[in-house]
Prior knowledge:
This protein is α/β, with parallel strands linked by helices. It has helices spanning 16-30, 61-74, 97-100, 125-136, 145-151, 176-181, 204-216, 236-250, 265-274, 291-298, 329-341, 343-356, 362-380, and strands spanning 2-7, 34-39, 52-54, 78-83, 106-110, 139-142, 157-159, 190-195, 221-226, 257-259, 277-280, 303-306, 322-324.
Amino acid sequence: MRIGLVTGEYPPMQGGIAAHCRILAQTLSAQGHSVMIYTDPQGQSDDPAIPVTHHRGRWRYAALKAIDNWVRREQLDIVNLHYQTAAYQMSPFIHFMPEMVRAAPVITTFHDLRFPYLFPKAGRLRDWIVMRLARASAGVIATNHEDLTRLRDHRQQTLIPIGSSVHTALPEAYDREQWRGRFGASPDDFVIAHFGFINHSKGVNILLSALSQLVAAGYPFQLLMIGGRTGASDPTNSAYADQLDQWIASSNLTDRVHWTGYVEDTIASAYFAAADVIALPFLDGASYRRSSLMAAIAHETAIVSTKPRVSIPPFRNADNLMLIAPNNIPALAAVLQVLYRDRDLRAQLRHGAAQLKETFAWGPIARANADFFRQVIEAQR
C-alpha cells in the first residue's frame, strides 16, 4: 500500500504523537509499505525511505487543498490523519479534512477525543466539531477504550493501541548505581520516577504532595522527572510547570526533585532502569492513550498509576500495575510506602509489566493499522 500519514507533530518535535507517527511509519515501511509524511515545517525524516512533505503556513483552508494535491501527486491508497485536540495549532479547519481530500479515503486516528479549545464560550461546538470529523472519516481508529465507546456507531471503527515512544536499549556497560549517582541518589535511597510532559491531567502536583509527606515522615525518597518538561503542542503546560517549580521551592523539595530534560532513548532507558518505581498518577485514570504509561510498561518497571475510568481488562491491580483512586494524595503516599518496604511486590509488578508489554509491541500495532486500512479501502470500493 501507498500510505500517507498527516500529523501536526513529527520529530525532531517533542511529543507522544510525533514519536508515535515516526515509529509507526518506520514499522509500516519495514513491513513492505510505501509511507509518506505530511507535517509541520519542523518535521524531518531520518529515513530516506520515508519522504516528508512540509506544510507551509497555518493549518487553514489552504492546508486542506495542499494535502489533497499531495495525495493526488503521490497516488496514495489511503490517508491517515493523526488527530489530537491540541495539535494543528488548534485550528478548526483540520476537522473538515475528509471532505476536502477526495483522492483517497481518509482514516482518522484519534489519540484523544477530549474537547479542543476553539475560542471562548465555544460550548457545544467543541464536541460537535470533533464528532463531525469522526463521522466524515471513511474509518476511525481509537487508541484507547474511552474513545472507542464514543466511536462505536461508526460503520468502520477499531481499537489499536499506541506503543512506547521510547526504544528500550540501555547504554553499553550500564551501571545502575552509577546512573543513580548522576542525580545524587545513594544506594539506600528509594527513587520514584515520572516520565512524560507535564500538564494538569498528569497529576504531578499530587505526586509532589505525596513526596512532601513522605520526606517529612523521614523516608529516603527521591523523585526523578525523566524527559522534556512541556512539549510543543499545548501552551498552557509551560505555565503549569512554572507553578510546580514555585511549589517545589516553597516546599523545600529542590534537593529531592531532579529533572533530566529531554534525553535520547538510551539515556531515558538508563533512568527508567535506575528507578525503583514509576509513578503516573493521572487525574483521569490509567489509559491506553498515555504514551508515558506504554513506555513504563515497555521498560518492565514497577508502576503506580490510577484506576481507569472504564474497564480495561489487561490492567490488573497488584499484578502488573498498582492502581489507586485518582487525585488522592494519602493513597499515593501509602502505596509508595508499601512498595518501599515490599521488594517481592515490586518484583511481581515488574514481571507483570513484562507480560503486558506484548500487547503494545510495534510490529502487531503496525499490522493492525495496515489490515484496517485495507478493510476501509475495500469498503470504499
